[in-house]
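Please, structure for the following, as tokens.
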Amino acid sequence: MPNPFLVRRTTAGDSGRLVVISLEGYLDAYTAPGFEAAIQAELEAGRVQLVVDCEKLTYIASAGLGVFMGFIEEFREKGGDIKICGLVPKVKQVFELLGFLSLYDILPDLPGAVERFSTDPQKVV
């Protein structure tokens, strides 16, 4: 496999309740279950402030996009949100074509995404 897929989890923000999931490589039908499991674990633990850092994500297929769509409403219903940051041009184009820019708060970089939770109405205190 030329670009293995990796999911990394860290915390950010003052409270440590803001979770950053960093994606690297190809997000497709084979790798989407790993991403889905990572998001599900955060939701089950009650951590509903999530930033998905896509700075090292080089490709996304419909299965990966489906993971984003499968969780957004549940996060928002619980008073949280999913912010997306660091999209490389090739991946950003896919998000644009499918209308994700109007559904998600997409920011240029991780510090901006973390900061957005301090000013966003969906912030969990």
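Residues 6-119 form a domain with the Transcription Regulator spoIIAA fold (CATH 3.30.750.24). The longest strand covers residues 49-60.
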